[in-house]
TrEMBL record:
Gene3D superfamilies: Glycosidases. This is Beta-xylanase. It comes from Bradyrhizobium guangzhouense. Belongs to the glycosyl hydrolase 10 (cellulase F) family. InterPro entries: GH, GH10, GH10_AS, GH10_dom, TAT_signal. PROSITE patterns: GH10_1, GH10_2, TAT. It is an enzyme of class 3 (hydrolase). It catalyses: Endohydrolysis of (1->4)-beta-D-xylosidic linkages in xylans.
Amino acid sequence: MIKLDRRKFLLGSAATLAAGSSASALPASKLAQRHQGYGAAATLWDLQADPRLGEAISTYCTQVVPVLELKWPMLRPDAHTFAFERADAIYDFAQKNDLTMRGHTLAWYHDIPDWTKQIKDSKAVERAYVDHISTVVSYYKDKLTSWDVVNEPIPDNPRDVKDRRDTFWTQHLGSSWIPLAFRTAAAADPYVKLAINEYDIESAKDSFIAKRAAYRNLIMELLDQGVPLHAVGLQSHLHAELEIDTHGLAEFVTEIRSWGLEVYVTELDVNDEKLTGSPTERDAIVAKRVNDLLTAIWTSGPVRSILSWGISDRYSWINGYVKRPDKQPNRPLPLDGEFKPKPLMDVISKFTKDV
Ligand code: XIL
């Protein structure tokens, strides 16, 4: 493992890539307007290109999470380098704006750099995996509130509750890749909350119900093995045409909490590609889906962390991935493309008032 000079990294980052505006504490009146526990994901590119984005996050949010900057490809250009500068710049932005920051993500089937995938020897893969998690979590020790340690471990359409996603990590480390990631992270920072994170478990479709059951089973197995897992992330990349499975989701969340775990909403947005109708009609359905989601989760208590994957439709990943048949932009987030609040922001406001 290469030696890191923590102080050098911190000074270097502060000097070069700050994305925030002023370096002072914000006025109390501004802080009081924020939706407690609400946060948004952002890339450094977007923060630097458009000051309205940072302004919106600092107006509505109490936390932020980097979209790309803590993933392997951006942190690890090669086997010997840890390039923390871009993530540090988002951390600087958070500090300057009195926001907390989450970490996303340490172990994922996706976004593994080519140099890593070219390692053929399983022992060497394990060394690279442990080195990465240990170095990155140590570097941000005492700075982040929580980490998405393992992201998306369940396949779509699982065959049964034991089904797990086949990943580069499983090919080399078998099922131990998940406990190993959590144990390594906990050893590097004993206080940060460690989360597992999954998508497509919120609706009533059969494949979602199956995925939720497999997720539940995995969480139970990890707890049985004494794995240091503290929180369960519901990504909540919702599909506007699908109803929320309010009953099933409420039951799932209640059970997870009865095991002593926290529940976070980690990547909220609502893809409206299958909705017809005017923007106003679409926005109303989008807001209703999130209202149903949060109502279901709230049956067993409030959620202290709700993050959307972006804050303005202008900077949503969905517009880069899917195109509506009518060529209109998707409207998945709480603010529109001009940073005006939509009904979805009212829903978030309602659920984050007294948390
Ligand atoms: C997405 C980013 O938003 C995209 O810009 C990138 O190209 C791919 O990753 N689930 C996750 C996030 O956990 O990391 C993904 O982010 C969106 C789905």
